[in-house]
Specification:
Homodimer. The chain has about 425 residues and is α/β, with parallel strands linked by helices. About 40% of the residues lie in helices and about 20% in strands. The chain has 15 helices and 14 strands. The strands form two sheets. The protein has an eight-stranded mixed sheet with strand order 5-4-3-2-1-6-8-7, sandwiched between helices. The protein binds adenosine-5'-diphosphate.
Length: about 425
């Protein structure tokens, strides 16, 4: 979908959007003012269901307001959302405010059906439930968040924004695994991709940075957070991405292996007597950087490398080697590349990762300027020298803003379609 500008989008005087990202034991929330796209408050409730639950709330209005913290048991998502609503109300930003236009929910898996954000109704909720077998870790928590928010404000539009949606434009030959078609179809096994909200936002911002429209440019996006994924975006449409049926495939991540010979799994079953759940935990939680060297924070890994730690150095090299392979592969997929862009925690902050990932790729038109690469900034910026054929950029991601923009746009369109909005 094309994202309209904020102006005139909802048009009813309701201009705030609450973004909810519900995990299995946490809820992250942000309240945004869509008239100028600023954040009014951000918060996190973690360890839901434990004795040591914690809510951290930071109001961003009224200058000098300080972050507040509550500790003590928060039994479930309903209690978490109520607690968050109380904190918002204390800042004059309560969920009962007529200025709240909608709630936007991050939903991890939208399967093939949800190619764009949707206003949530019972039928949509059922469909998100039907996708639980392919997203057992994520969709149940997202559904709990949606149910809770709907119960609190049944009158308010609630929108689902899917992590997979941006990738639904992938051609069939990129999305299908080369396995028996009937088995694949029976179990909906294919490459869906994740982090789509970030890839969409960052690829669009990169086009802006280049002074072009998204339709005019081909971009390789490297989203390097704790989870990491690459995507190839041709003319604004995703044509390839590194995560697959689940977020396990692709790049080396903080705790995930990324690409691996699938035979490793049945080898471990047969030779090490490991169960499917144990191997799942091994590959998702005890692999990647943490498996290789014991640390998943790139800052710590760099510090250890500076002290001469060889395991940390090897982990770094494996991480960068994989990245390089994907840059090469996606250059081939795109044919012509206008920009390679780094984003998320590692991509935005680690100059050594950016430098090493691009080193030696001059034949592909890629180079990094050491001075530009060393600059620390929250702004989108180019880090390639003028002579480089392909721009290399750093563009901070903002998934919450993208969810809010898409939610607000959709609610505005829905109101417009009902004839309730005339401006
Ligand atoms: P998530 O996937 O949890 O959203 P983020 O995008 O916040 O992750 O990225 C978190 C990771 O970013 C950390 O694990 C760390 O490796 C890396 N990171 C954060 N800040 C820095 C920094 N200043 N330098 C290098 N790496 C950093």
């Amino acid at each position: 979908m094309t994202i309209p500008t904020t102006e005139g989008s909802a048009g009813t005087g309701a201009y705030r959007v609450l973004v909810l990202n519900s995990g299995s034991s946490s809820v992250k929330y942000q309240l945004l003012d869509m008239s100028d796209r600023t954040r009014l408050a951000v918060g996190l409730v973690e360890r839901i269901g434990e004795e040591t639950s914690r809510l951290v709330h930071t109001p961003l209005v009224g200058g000098g307001a300080e972050r507040r913290e509550r500790t003590g048991p928060i039994a479930d998502h309903e209690a978490a959302l109520k607690a968050a609503a109380e904190e918002l109300a204390a800042d004059g930003l309560g969920l009962d405010s007529p200025q709240l236009a909608a709630i936007g929910h991050r939903v991890v898996h939208g399967g093939l059906r949800f190619t764009e954000p949707v206003v949530i109704d019972d039928e949509v909720l059922k469909e998100i439930e039907r996708l639980i077998p392919v997203a057992p870790l994520h969709n149940p928590a997202n559904i709990t968040g949606i149910r809770t928010a709907r119960a609190m404000r049944p009158d308010l539009p609630q929108v689902a924004v899917f992590d997979t949606a941006f990738h639904t434009t992938m051609p069939e030959y990129a999305a299908r695994y080369a396995i028996d078609t009937e088995t694949a179809d029976a179990h909906r096994i294919r490459r869906y991709g994740f982090h789509g909200t970030s890839h969409a936002y960052v690829s669009r911002r990169t086009a802006e940075l280049l002074g072009r429209t998204p339709e005019e440019v081909n971009v390789i996006v490297l989203h390097l957070g704790n989870g990491a994924s690459a995507s190839a975006v041709a003319g604004g449409r995703c044509v390839e991405t590194s995560m697959g049926l689940t977020p396990l495939e692709g790049l080396v991540m903080g705790t995930r292996s990324g690409d691996i010979d699938p035979a490793v799994t049945f080898h471990l079953m047969r030779v090490a007597g490991m169960s499917a759940d144990e191997i799942d935990a091994l590959l998702n939680k005890k692999s990647g950087l943490v498996g290789l060297c014991g640390d998943n924070d790139m800052r710590e890994i760099r510090r250890r490398i500076d002290e001469g730690d060889e395991r940390a150095a090897l982990a770094f090299d494996i991480y960068v080697h994989r990245l390089k392979k994907y840059i090469g592969a996606y250059s081939a997929v795109l044919g012509r590349v206008d920009a390679v862009v780094f984003t998320a925690g590692v991509g935005e902050n680690s100059a050594p990762v950016r430098e090493a990932a691009v080193a030696g790729l001059e034949e592909l038109g890629l180079a990094v300027d050491a001075d530009l690469n060393g600059v620390r900034s929250d702004e989108p910026r180019l880090i390639s020298p003028d002579y480089a054929r392909v721009a290399v950029a750093v563009v901070p991601t903002d998934e919450e803003l993208e969810i809010a923009v898409q939610t607000f746009a959709l609610v505005g369109q829905a109101r417009g379609a009902l004839g309730q909005v005339h401006n």
